[in-house]
User: Fold these one by one.
Assistant:
Number 1:
Amino acid sequence: MEKMTREEKYRYIEQALPEELERLKEKVSKSPWRQKYHIQPQTGLLNDPNGFSYYNEAYHLFYQWFPFGPEHGMKYWFHTTSKDLAHWEEVGIAIKPGGPYDSHGAYSGSGIVKNNKLYLMYTGNTRDHSWVRHPFQCLAEMDKNGLITKFDKPVIFETPPGYTDHFRDPKVWKSDEEYFCVIGAQRDNKTGCIVLYQSKDLLQWNFRGEILTDLNEFGYMWECPDYFEMDDHGVLLFSPQGIEQENERYNNIYQSGYLIGKPLNMESRAFEHQPFQELDKGFDFYAQQTTETPDGRRILVGWMGLPDLEYPTDKEGWAHCLTLPRQINIKDDKLIQRPVSELALLRKKEKNINISVDNETKQLEDFYGTAYELICDIEDIKADRVGIEFRASNTEKTVLAYDSVSNKIILDRSLSGQPLGKKNGSIRRCSFDAQTFKIHMFVDVSSVEIFINDGEEVFTSRIFPSQNSKAIRFFAQKGTAKFKAVKWDY
Ligand code: FRU
């Protein structure tokens, strides 16, 4: 596909050609891969979730948006809101780039409530005449009427010595009476890390230094950091770039994961932690952000996509969506992710099945779909391999399997439909050693999110099947298994 020029990419929305956006919208609306219940852009490209927060009796979730096409150009914050984490409404543009400190994009950041206002801290991206990047950490405030006002001056002007211009994505939180923020950074020696700032009022920030982890050489840039504490643990999430593939790990172009350990020592910034773990085993997951609900749950949303890859919707003028919100818990030094319970509000027609499968692949009449939630318990597994084929037809299928010989879960999208990301392979596997196998999955028109055994493993992926690939099939190879499944159309 023809790429946009720099001039085309770095335009403000006011500079749209006559009817450019209307025409693009029209084109996008004809796409067969528009999602039914995921947050997606009206036109252009969506990337990171931003400013995820609860304020004024609603959830607010913003995202990085480039309106003019499926490219990373001038980024806006687009605002969506929800009362229940299941139904989302589009509000519109929230933060417009274009001031002296965000002339080339309002990049990622976070939200925090203070004195009845929602404060949005983000990275102002600028480029000088030689196209050299100068990042600033900026602030905006939103009032109860949804009016957003940017502060005139950045709250963090300088990138501290020792770091390059890759310095962005502030995530703010409050602890006791102080505010802290983590920022993703690159050291002068081109390794990635996270730095910590502290503030009494969100306006004046003190640079405290790097978070001291054991990962001194782990990729060249860490994007979108996040930190929270839960059950006497500290959890540091981030998206590192530049990690080499290691067998089944780190198969995607860039990674997303976390370090879990003792709570961060705010004085020394020492963080004692377990090895890095990936958050998601699927093909399309990046730049996640968390928030806390009024009832104390930690909820995570990610970008269901990755930078620097082409997707089949590019030629239709749009790209990407956000993941469903997931509740995070800790079990045995690992994050467990489950779809938020509120998603049950989206359930429509229900269907149940209860079948035995004996060395075969079974398809049931009246049990199919293109947008649904499915919970399937696979019991009495006495087979080498068991699993589900979905979004299937004579020529297409996406396959999720448990291989009891190698003790692996396997997601195979090699026959899912329009090919994508082939360079990074079309199969994902992860080790899995359990007596039971429960699949909880959310299929939308062009995606699937799979939660195994109540969130022990998660696979998030885009798939691009044709509209008539609707079949759901249950299989057992070299043996038998019982499938008990319930499906709700969405
Ligand atoms: C991650 C990221 C962030 C940056 C934003 C720009 O995908 O590169 O680091 O703030 O996207 O859109």
Number 2:
Amino acid sequence: MNRICFFDTKPYDRVFFDQMKGEYGIEIEYFEPKLGPKTAFMAKGFEAVVAFVNDSIDKETIDILYQNGTRLIAMRCAGYNNVDFKAAYGKLHITRVPEYSPYAVAEHAMALLLSLNRKIHRAYSRTRDFNFSLNGLMGFDLHGKTMGVIGTGKIGKVFINICTGFGLKVIAYDPYPDEKSGIEYVTLDELFRQSDIVSLHCPLTKDTFHMVNPETINMMKKGVYIINTSRGALIDSEALLEALKAEKIGGACLDVYEEETEVFYEDMSYTIIRDDILARVISMPNVIVTSHQAFLTKEALHNIAETTLINCRKYFDDNVIENEICYKCSRGDSCLRKENKRCF
Ligand code: NAD
């Protein structure tokens, strides 16, 4: 048996990991705190550490983990914008789960849009209070509207299929378009100008940071809806708030938020929310915020546990880990993995 430790544990995380860990010869010590410079010491003596989207895997954290004997960080997610790959190179191998269920995220994006547009969340609260009035619940037909999809990878493509089923006209932007897909690609500016709804499905990188900002919002149609199930910092949240107040943006469906780290996944109902932008955005009648839950389906959690445990097993057995990633291969550059089995 090999021992690993697990940060930022919630009850739903344990279900599939506990079911499968024996099969992969792994024992797990679960920790509730997030991984970061103040908690990294807890991993002392664990060669492998499992981490998640809001853990802070910066240089300081990496150095503490390395000094205490950790050699692998197995991310139990697809995105890796919270990892300082340069600091990790040569010290910690990083693996991830590149795909666990694009359907989970794409379906959640559409669920948010349908709820917000047709005011399902409001109708639910009303009818539970025996208020059967329809005032204020008017939506619009999705059929015939233009959906702009930014990022046509695994999730973007599933989302496009769902949109097509609703009779939406889909246009897309991706710097690496899939020419064989039949998707209608346009420039990013054209997408912002033509779309009635914009849905973000690209990773957070230096190029995509705040891609929705005052300038790009200015290009959009009045009343545009924005869906973000990717990463919060794709949207400049101050600009989003201003555009909601000015009624330039007609609706926002947000599963992620740029300052989510301290609040998402926690019960903050007895706490004063210090983030005025988040508090004001949530107060808007035309905004739905979910707490980074788009991935939360049985199928996705099963696949996350399975791939993470396989990544750890391959590390312990000294096998090639297909899902290893470093700052070279994450940029598309060639890294040593091809000749060397590992990124370094
Ligand atoms: P993917 O790698 O399959 O696709 C990403 C696509 O974005 C690629 O086609 C890529 O070419 C494109 N892209 C890269 N740079 C771009 C740019 N500057 N502008 C536009 N497009 C660009 O990834 P995926 O599995 O489809 O996931 C997409 C994102 O969804 C992830 O990066 C992650 O941030 C997010 N995600 C969120 C959740 C959640 O629970 N909310 C779960 C999983 C993934």
